[in-house]
Amino acid sequence: MKVMIAGGSGLIGSALTHSLLEDGHEVWLLSRNPKKVRVPQGAHALEWDGRTVYHHWLGIFSQMDAIVNLAGSTIGQWPWSDVRKKAIVQSRVDAGRVLSQAFEKASPRPPVLLQASGVGYYGPRGDETIHEEMPAGDDFLSTVAINWESSTKIVDTMGVRRVILRTGLVLARDGGVLPLMALPVRLFAGGPIGSGKQGISWIHIRDQVRAIRFLMENNKARGVFNVCAPNPTSNANFMRALARALHRPYWFPAPGFAMSLLLGEMSDLLLTGQFVIPQRLVNLGFAFDFESAYDAFQDLY
């Protein structure tokens, strides 16, 4: 199989690339700085600017069996200024628009596009259980997800099988937000954040990669899939499980008002959440290796 990944140098893209290469597949990475990005041995890097279709990669694009769009500026960089928020949305829209144009121009067309998104699509929902048919929220993270998904919607009219990956919090030892969440726990100051009641929909990085490949290779997979473990949990229980796995006490809460003062609107990442279930993924027959947060933490630590 030949796979092209936009945004392949990030946490998910890197793990996916290594997994595909280990199984003998060919991987091309679209990168803004191919000379600076650490490209895994066996992968190929192609330069793009995330805004323009270049002929030097369009020819290769048409030879692909699958395209994976993970491109987008990180939401984890503080602060969320107006300029930063615009960049977060625009980088996703631009990348999706360019890939859509590539699908229009390509002959033949790759048969499948896997389009990244996030469970933030649903907005804060309290303790409500959320499945794929639920409507979008109306906060900033919802706006990001809505625009990200819409950026490649046009390929649905081209006979391309488009899969939308609404991903939860990806747990990895050396990347993403987990190392930051684990830091106060390691320093014996771990505890709930804010009320601790907000939902955390999470997934182990290994299951994240396995789910992407499962949906990539399953011709029945089309449309929206929640890509998160089947057992979302509250922030309090999540942090308690993390403290247990790290053999640290669980007792020191981080007040919500302090997080709001420190991070501003960005505190929504920590103080709000959702209890999202991967209903369509499970119905399609995907089996998770890690169904509890504690088991995931034990494996990672």
Q: What would CATH call the class of the domain at 2-170 and 202-230 and 277-288? A: Alpha Beta
Spatial separation of the terminal alpha carbons: 33 Å
- What class do helices, strands and sheet pairing give? alpha/beta
Number of strands: 13
Treating each run of at least 4 consecutive H or I residues as one helix, how many helices?
11
Give the low-pLDDT segments.
Answer: none
Q: Helix and strand succession?
A: EHEEHEHEEHEEHEEHEEHHHEHH
Strand line-up of the largest beta sheet: 3-2-1-4-5-7-11
Q: Radius of gyration, rounded?
A: 19 Å
CATH fold call of the domain at 2-170 and 202-230 and 277-288 = Rossmann fold
CATH architecture of the domain at 2-170 and 202-230 and 277-288: 3-Layer(aba) Sandwich
Largest pleated sheet: 7 strands, parallel
- The CATH homologous superfamily name of the domain at 2-170 and 202-230 and 277-288 equals NAD(P)-binding Rossmann-like Domain
Overall pLDDT score: 92
Helix content: 25-40%
Shape: globular
The amount of beta strand, in percent, is 15-25%
What does the model show?
This protein is globular. The chain is α/β, with parallel strands linked by helices and 301 residues long. Helix 1 (11-22) crosses helix 6 and helix 3 (82-105) runs parallel beside helix 4 (140-150). It has a seven-stranded parallel β-sheet, with helices on both faces. Strands 6-13 form a two-stranded parallel sheet. Strands 8-10 form a two-stranded parallel ribbon. The protein has a domain at 2-170 and 202-230 and 277-288: Rossmann fold, CATH 3.40.50. The protein is built from eleven helices and 13 strands. It has helices at 11-22, 55-61, 82-105, 140-150, 178-186, 205-217, 235-245, 256-263, 268-271, 279-283, 293-300; strands spanning 2-6, 26-31, 44-47, 66-69, 112-118, 129-130, 161-167, 169-171, 199-200, 202-204, 223-227, 233-234, 275-276. The chain starts with a strand and ends with a helix.
